[in-house]
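Troubleshooting: if your tokenizer reports a length mismatch, compare your output against this known-good record of 737 residues.
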Amino acid sequence: MIKSSMQEIHPREVANKGDKENLQKAIGMALEVENDALRLNTQTFNANRYNAIKKLNDYEGLKDRARKIKEKSIENLPELINKLTAAVQSRGGKVYLAKTKEDAAGYVKDVCKSHSAKLVVKAKSITSEEIGLNDSLEKENIEVAETDLAEFILQVSKEQPSHIVAPAIHRSRERISKLFKENFRTAQKLETGEELTKFARDILRQKFLSADVGISGANLIAANEGTILLVESEGNIRLTTQLPAIHIAIAGIEKIIETKKDFGTFIELLAASGTGQQLTTYTNILEPPLNLPVLNLNGRQDTLREFHLVLVDNGRMKMREDRDLYEALYCIRCSACMNVCANFQAVGGHAFGGECYTGGIGGAWTVGTTGKLENGRFAELCTGCSRCIPSCPVQINIPHLNTVIKNRLIKKGEPSLQRKFFGNFSVLARFTSTVPTLSNWAANFYLSKIIFEKVIGFDKRRNIPRFAKSTLTKQYQNYKRDSSIREIESNASTKLILFADVYTNYNNPHIGMAIVKLFEKLGLPVTLSKVMEDGRAAQSQGLIDAAGNSAKRLTRYLLELIADGADLLFAEPSVLSMIRYDYKKFVNDNRLFLKLQNNCYDPMEYLLKIVKEGTLNVDWLKERITNRNIKIFYHGHCQMKSIGIGNSTPDFLEMLGFEVDISIAECCGMAGSFGYKKQYYELSKNVGKDLTKQIRKSQVDGCSIILASGNSCREQIMDELGEEVYHPIEFLHKVIG
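Known-good structure output:
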């Protein structure tokens, strides 16, 4: 017997109010109540995914095939809907194309009422959440029994899902036990996972045997054959689709592909990407109505099986025509983007989510299916770190989707002073660098910090980055003037140019100079580019037009340097990532974009490259190292991993004989301007604690120096540990004589 529910107030209820203040409250609530379970469970899934994809033959090839299948399917969607309808109807099934969520829920309700249904058993379906199906049926006194264990837990707690694959991922075993004891009359201990599962199974078993109608979703639907793919780990979908005589499948139209021959590609990718399994426990491929006897275990007198396929539009066709949001339609609901996202690991979908869609991919889906831009405000929690892109089995550029939402919110009338400040940092840098000593004193004066926090939301607990007394440009000019009498024997076959990005020029010139001096020691003279804005700061704030203008100007300049025979070095990984990945959106000529990709390098990546090519002799280099008995802790920048060079630095250091302890944290939590903002400070620090724990353990094990490639990574670690953190090039410059 279910007792009256003792409902809590959940973060999602607060976040769904759609304004900035409530999003911030939801973050705080999630950090306080759900953080530990979320972190453990998402990180476990993510670690399992890393192991699973290593076992896949040609993982990148699988992703390419999946992407092409989805691209073709969405392009030909109207035709595929007609083919699918004909295929299902040829077997006696019925197909209903619902324009809106109300149409979809209404049709299902009418089918249930026409059969005098009193009890419906339902498999996990995010689309049914989207259309508000349970409420619609319950208003007609039709009981809905969620049969997925996690959905059953949420139904008891009256919560919305916080994750696509594991909807109750935010609940610990202890909280589930407490929930069951509060809502059911039971003397059972319910302390272990096995006990909790058996308790729920015994309740649900009776529901399966008594159900009048079974409702499922669909992972994919093949148009040519009218075939449905359903993957699961509990067996409840088989009972839902096969025990009742009436089966209703609800699916968004984006789930349609051309043929069931292509199921295999997605079956391999789905389980590996979502939970790290090589294959889900149950893989169901159905062509309903099923040719099976009707059991009527509930006492009904049904003689024939009946099948209804409800295809849901609800904004999807508009998304298909949207030049930016259309890519979200390729999503196969695997949840890899959530599990790899450091912010999602901290707060889950009850803060990083909308009415039913969550995580980085959820913003576009929420906007598309509700038609309300403000409902996608949680896209602000996407920092653009891009860790989700290589994790996505269909290669969706999720950060771009969220940048588009930020941009549209701005154009709707929300261009905050905070966005303008962080998005136009180069203007501030040029001005303050004229009087750096005064600027630094004024900026870090306590009263100034309070004003900064109130006016632009720059959290007063953060140290304001200091401007260098002398810019990189000036230091480079002075260095070259002082060393002009010294001849350098060059080993370089290509001209090398260090790009003077804004932050390196005004805030971190010592890193730029370390690159110049180290490369010169190695017989690789480096010249300096002019200082130019790359657009990264503007893009991170959603200022797409400004980012595009900067990108186009810089592209022209860099291509001139490349045409003159130069290879380009970048001190800051986020700038390199912007050019090698994000510029594809701004450079219309793919040939020119490839030139940028192929001639722009991280300094450590470049050194590793020329060692492998034989241009730089690694034995000669080893002889020049003054001390190799140093254990290093290295944290790689998110975007270095995303563009495929995450291992370049540790590989090069190990080649030189150093022992390197490599960070396994997805992100430091700082994420550029994100960690400076008052509304995200607590979240940023919470994300960073994983990295801090790893560093402290490494220090106990003998690590004596901490290296990090990204500037924001170094700032976060130094803020937490109060210790110096070095760029890898700084370290090499010190130890190579």
